[in-house]
């Protein structure tokens, strides 16, 4: 049976690579995006070319109204939701905490923490067997920053990902008896546009060279681990934090 997944931030980077791989496995993919409709449409076209189905869906994960609408739209389109890839996330320009203003801190935690919690909540409401659902899988996209702390760059971002790790640990225990597995991947330095949005387009290449594997990772390498965690091959894996960070 065809499975349906919502990928938040599915239009670019790690989300897009995950969408493409799931398309090749025949999945129906909700490609959520914040602003870049053209990128979401391009991703949807890649999913369809790979053999799946795709629906671009606009929505800010920091908005409860948008998050509920995202899930409703996907469920109406495909009749079911089997999985969530809780992937949308932002960084901000490198800075010390002492120089961060309130607006930056609020937005960081609104998108990366509140957004992840709201999406996980909606998935739990719809997938939990205790609430009439058929079970499912959640993969949260955290970061190696959660254990590194990211001093002088973005301790706000690192802390937001620490919350995502803790969400993963708690929700896996809460939802295990209700047919839902919950895991996280913690990417390291991955070659996507997120670094440019933080003002350092070359960051992954420069810092990646100093990692044990000597290079940045690709979005596809992270997507492969997400797809594995979504699959039945990972049927006994829940509450895991999987580092995909080249040994960093
Ligand atoms: P990216 O290339 O910058 O893509 C970000 C995606 O998130 C885009 O699809 C963007 O939509 C979407 N997005 C941003 N804010 C959103 C919001 N408020 N609501 C809904 N969607 C939103 O990022 P990436 O590198 O693939 O990162 C994906 C995840 O991996 C993030 O959680 C990030 O923290 C994590 N991560 C990345 C790295 C890395 O080195 N790249 C390392 C560790 C962890 P638009 O296209 O509309 O802007």
UniProtKB/TrEMBL annotation:
GO terms for molecular function: oxidoreductase activity, acting on CH-OH group of donors. InterPro entries: NAD(P)-bd_dom_sf, Sc_DH/Rdtase_CS, SDR_fam. Keywords: Oxidoreductase. The keyword Glycoprotein does not apply. It comes from the Bacteria. It holds the Pfam family adh_short_C2. Belongs to the short-chain dehydrogenases/reductases (SDR) family. This is NAD(P)-dependent dehydrogenase (Short-subunit alcohol dehydrogenase family).
């Amino acid at each position: 049976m065809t499975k349906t997944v919502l990928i938040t931030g599915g239009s670019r980077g790690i989300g897009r690579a995950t969408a493409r791989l799931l398309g090749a496995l025949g999945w129906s993919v909700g490609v959520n995006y914040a602003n870049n409709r053209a990128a979401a449409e391009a991703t949807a076209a890649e999913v369809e070319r790979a053999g799946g189905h795709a629906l671009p869906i606009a929505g800010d994960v920091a908005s409860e109204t948008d998050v509920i609408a995202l899930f409703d739209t996907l469920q109406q389109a495909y009749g079911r939701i089997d999985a969530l890839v809780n992937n949308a996330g932002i960084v901000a320009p490198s800075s010390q905490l002492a120089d961060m203003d309130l607006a930056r801190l609020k937005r960081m935690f609104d998108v990366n923490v509140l957004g992840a919690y709201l999406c996980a909540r909606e998935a739990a409401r719809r997938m939990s067997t205790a609430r009439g659902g058929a079970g499912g899988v959640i993969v949260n996209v955290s970061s190696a920053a959660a254990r590194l702390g990211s001093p002088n760059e973005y301790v706000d971002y690192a802390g937001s990902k620490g919350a995502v790790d803790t969400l993963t640990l708690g929700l896996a225990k809460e939802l295990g008896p209700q047919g839902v597995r919950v895991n996280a991947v913690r990417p390291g330095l991955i070659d996507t546009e997120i670094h440019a949005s933080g003002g350092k387009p070359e960051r992954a290449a420069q810092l990646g060279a100093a990692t044990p594997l000597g290079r940045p990772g690709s979005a596809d390498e992270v997507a492969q681990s997400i797809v594995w965690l979504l699959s039945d091959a990972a049927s006994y894996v829940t509450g895991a934090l999987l580092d995909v960070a080249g040994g960093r």
